[in-house]
TrEMBL record:
GO terms for molecular function: citrate synthase activity. Belongs to the citrate synthase family. The active site is at H308, D365. GO terms for cellular component: cytoplasm. CDD domains: EcCS_like. It comes from Elongatibacter sediminis. It catalyses: oxaloacetate + acetyl-CoA + H2O = citrate + CoA + H(+). InterPro entries: Citrate_synth-like_lrg_a-sub, Citrate_synth-like_sm_a-sub, Citrate_synthase, Citrate_synthase_AS, Citrate_synthase_bac-typ, Citrate_synthase_sf, Citrate_synthase_typ-I. This is Citrate synthase. One of its GO terms (biological process) is tricarboxylic acid cycle. It comes from the Bacteria. The keyword Acyltransferase applies.
Length: 429
C-alpha cells in the first residue's frame, strides 16, 4: 500500500475521510474503500464491477489499452511460441517455470490422474443423449467431490494441490466422455503413453472399429489454444470461482460454478456465436451487406468475435491465433465454405475504416471457433474446450485464494422495492 491517499468529503454531513491508495506492481492505482461505510455511511455502486478490485493476485496481468497479457510476468507471445500447455499450467499453479525434473514430475502426476471412477461414466450415461455438453460438464464436475473426498483437507496445501492436479487431469477425460455419450459411442479411456492434447484428441475421436492417428498439426493447434485460454484475470467465471471459494466450498463445486458462468454466450459461448453468425451470413457474396448492417446502430445484427470488453487495442491472443488459424487450415487441407466466408469477413473488416477507427478487430473467439471447427469439434463442444483450458486458471486462482485469509464475498445492492407496509388478510385483499 502506498502513502498516497484520496480524500472523500460529504459536504452535507461535514465529514471527510482519507482513503488509502493501493498500488500493485503494475496497473492502475486502486482506492481502498472498505472503511467508507463505517466512516461516512456510504456504499459504492458499480454494476458489473467494472471499476472494483475484489482481490489481489500475482497470476495474470492485463493492460487492455496496450494490448498486454502476461502470465506470472511472462508475455503471452513468448509462452505461445516457446512453451507447452502443461508447462504453462505448472507456471500458473506454482508461480515459476519448472526445471526439467520439476516438469517431468508434474507431467507424471497429471498423467497418473487422468482416469475417472467408472461410476462417473454410469452417471454420464444417465443424461439424455442430446443434452448440451456444458450441462453434463457442470453436473459431473460438481459431483467429483462425492468421488474424490478421501484426501481433501482444505487446510492442507498438499491436499489442495492434489485436488488441483486432479481437476486438470480429469477435465479432458470428462469432456470426451460427455461428447461420446452424445454421439452414442462407447467410452474411450485415456492412453497415458500420449501427451495431454494427443490423449484428449484420441479420447474424443477414436473408435474401436479402426485405428486413429492423432494429427501433429491438430495437437499443436490445440496446445496453443489451451495456452491462450488458460487464464484471463478476474473475468466472470474466474470471479465466480473465487466467490464460491470464499465460502470454503470444495474446489470441485467452485469449478462447477465456473463452468456454469462460462456457459453464457457473452463469455465462453462467444466462439459458438461466431459460427452461428457465419451460418447466418451464409455466403461470401453476402459479406459486404452484413458489414454494412453491422455499422447500422438500428440494425440488430452484430459482428460476433470482433472487439473485446477489456482490450481497447488488438487482443494479443488474436494476433497469435490468427497466424495459427491460417496454418492449420492449410496443413489440414480443410475445404469448407464457412472457412472461406470467415477469412473474407476478416479481410474486409480489417481494411474497413469504420472498424479500424473503432478498433473492432477480430478477437480470440473469432479464430478459436474456426480452428475448433477445422479440427472436427462440433459447435456444442466449443465452450467445453474453453473450460478444459480455463480449469488451469480457475484452480490456480482457487489455490492462491486458499493460501490467504479471505472474507466471504458479499456484494451490496441498491434497493428499489416497496418500503415497509402491513400485511392484509387474504379475505380483505
Amino acid at each position: 500500500m502506498s502513502e498516497r491517499k484520496v480524500t472523500v468529503t460529504d459536504e452535507t454531513a461535514g465529514k471527510s475521510i482519507d482513503l488509502p491508495v493501493i498500488s500493485g506492481s503494475e496497473g492502475e492505482p486502486t482506492i481502498d474503500i472498505k472503511s467508507l461505510p463505517s466512516e461516512l455511511g456510504y456504499f459504492t455502486y458499480d454494476p458489473g464491477f467494472t471499476a472494483t478490485a475484489a482481490c489481489t493476485s500475482e497470476i495474470t496481468f492485463i493492460d487492455g489499452g496496450q494490448g498486454i497479457l502476461r502470465y506470472r510476468g511472462y508475455p503471452i507471445e513468448q509462452l505461445a511460441e516457446k512453451s507447452s500447455f502443461l508447462e504453462v499450467a505448472y507456471l500458473l499453479l506454482q508461480g515459476e517455470l519448472p526445471s526439467a525434473e520439476e516438469y517431468s514430475d508434474f507431467e507424471r502426476d497429471i498423467t497418473y490422474h487422468t482416469m475417472v471412477n467408472e461410476q462417473l461414466n454410469t452417471f454420464i450415461s444417465g443424461f439424455h443423449y442430446d443434452a448440451h455438453p456444458m450441462a453434463m460438464m457442470a453436473g459431473v464436475v460438481g459431483s467429483l467431490a462425492a468421488f474424490y473426498h478421501d484426501r481433501l483437507d482444505m487446510e492442507d496445501s498438499a491436499h489442495r494441490m492434489l485436488a488441483a492436479k486432479r481437476m486438470i487431469a480429469k477435465m479432458p477425460t470428462i469432456a470426451a466422455a460427455c461428447y461420446r455419450h452424445h454421439m452414442g459411442w462407447p467410452t474411450a479411456y485415456p492412453q497415458n503413453n500420449l501427451s495431454y492434447c494427443e490423449r484428449f484428441l484420441h479420447m474424443m475421436f477414436s473408435v474401436p472399429a479402426e485405428e486413429y492417428k492423432v494429427s501433429p498439426s491438430a495437437v499443436r493447434a490445440l496446445d496453443l489454444l489451451f495456452i491462450l485460454h488458460a487464464d484471463h484475470e478476474q473475468n466472470a467465471s474466474t470471479s465466480t470461482v473465487r466467490l464460491v471459494g470464499s465460502t470454503g466450498a470444495n474446489p470441485y463445486a467452485c469449478v462447477a460454478a465456473g463452468i456454469s458462468a462460462l456457459w453464457g454466450p457473452a463469455h465462453g459461448g462467444a466462439n459458438e456465436a461466431v459460427l452461428n453468425m457465419l451460418h447466418e451470413i451464409g455466403d461470401v457474396k453476402n459479406v459486404p451487406q452484413f458489414i454494412e448492417r453491422a455499422k447500422d446502430r438500428n440494425d440488430p445484427f452484430r459482428l460476433m468475435g470482433f472487439g473485446h470488453r477489456v482490450y481497447k487495442n488488438y487482443d494479443p491472443r488474436a494476433s497469435i491465433i490468427r497466424k495459427a488459424c491460417h496454418e492449420v487450415l492449410q496443413e489440414l487441407g480443410v475445404d469448407d465454405p464457412l472457412m472461406d466466408l470467415a477469412m473474407e469477413l476478416e479481410r474486409i473488416a480489417l481494411e474497413d475504416d469504420y472498424f479500424v477507427e473503432k478498433k473492432l478487430y477480430p478477437n480470440v473467439d473469432f479464430y478459436s471457433g474456426i480452428i475448433y471447427k477445422a479440427l472436427g469439434f462440433p459447435v456444442s463442444m466449443f465452450t467445453v474446450m474453453f473450460a478444459i483450458a480455463r480449469t488451469v486458471g480457475w484452480v490456480a486462482q482457487w489455490l492462491e485464494q486458499s493460501e490467504t485469509p479471505t472474507k466471504i464475498g458479499r456484494p451490496r445492492q441498491v434497493y428499489n422495492g416497496p418500503v415497509a407496509r402491513d400485511y392484509v388478510a387474504l379475505d380483505k385483499r
